[in-house]
Design brief:
Length: 276
């Protein structure tokens, strides 16, 4: 299905401007494969017509759905293991004593996708922090409205819970109904989900009432942004955090040479970032 070069350039710019996501020339196939359902649902004849309709109204429902379709929501419970070990053995033990053992611990999962990451944080908190249900609050935000709706529903398939979830946590924190697994209320009560765009300055004020954060997860999303945009995002996150707060990114997501605001803390050979 064709897309005129100037309309491909337009869609690429639109995506970059609205979401920070970088598509190079070789990624036309990605747009093509991701928008098939959109074309059907909105009864649009082809890719040229899709681009023209978005261009006419960049705030339309169609434009939002296009952005949503272009996000990669791949995620799993306890992804990469080490962040959750670090929470358990390093970060929570430091925070547990705040406010004589009664202080609040505020956490933000800033690209929470379908919820597996923030629910994994909640399970870890529940197993490590005394009275976690009273003391720990977790905000999950994502650009993708469909991912946020999914996370709010807190319902996962057998396949999803099999990816990364130890049986012990599955049995303790989920109930099974038919083929689906539902997150228990104890965890759900710690969580709030909202739509949120990392490349928008308004995000800082949007999340203010949930912070300042002790811990921010921004994992496996910065890789989709340009090096400059990654630094803008990290500066934005820093504005929402407490001094001494921990930032978790993917292993290689912070470009070299931009570490001035952060102390690098090594945990099992992986980098965590502590706000100075
Ligand atoms: C690959 S998933 C990673 C999810 C989770 N953090 C993890 O590590 O498993 C990337 C997520 O980033 C979200 N995303 C992409 N661009 C974004 C933006 N500008 N603002 C907020 N979220 C964004 C996508 O919608 C997607 O859910």
């Amino acid at each position: 299905m064709s897309l005129r070069p100037e309309l491909f350039r337009y869609l690429r710019e639109f995506l970059l401007h609205k979401s920070g996501l970088v598509l190079d020339d070789s990624k036309l196939y990605l747009i093509r494969s991701r928008v098939q359902a959109l074309l059907r649902n909105f009864e649009i004849s082809d890719m040229d017509a899709l681009a023209q309709q978005i261009k006419r109204d960049e705030n339309s429902k169609l434009a939002h759905h296009f952005l949503d379709a272009m996000t990669t929501n791949e995620t799993l419970f306890f992804r990469d293991t080490y962040p959750f070990e670090a929470l358990k053995t390093l970060v929570f033990p430091e925070l547990i004593h705040v406010g004589n053992g009664h202080g609040n611990i505020k956490i933000w999962s800033a690209a929470s996708s379908k919820g597996q990451e923030p629910y994994s944080i909640a399970m870890t908190a529940s197993e490590t922090v005394p009275m976690a249900d009273k003391r720990v609050s977790i905000l999950g935000t994502d650009l993708s409205e469909s991912a946020i709706a999914y996370a709010r529903e807190a319902k996962y398939s057998q396949m999803e819970v099999q990816r990364g979830m130890p049986v012990k946590q599955l049995v303790r924190f989920f109930t099974q109904e038919g083929l689906d697994w539902f997150v228990c209320d104890e965890l759900k009560e710690m969580l709030t989900f909202q739509n949120g765009n990392l490349v928008n300055d308004a995000l800082v004020s949007q999340v203010r009432r949930f912070g300042p954060f002790d811990i921010v997860f921004c994992r496996n999303v910065l890789i989709y942004f340009s090096p400059e945009e990654r630094m803008n995002v990290i500066d934005r996150l820093a504005k929402t955090m407490k001094k001494g707060g921990y930032l978790f990114t993917g292993a290689t997501e912070i470009p070299e040479g931009h570490y001035s605001k952060w102390e690098c803390v090594m945990f099992k050979g992986k980098r965590l970032w502590k706000l100075l």
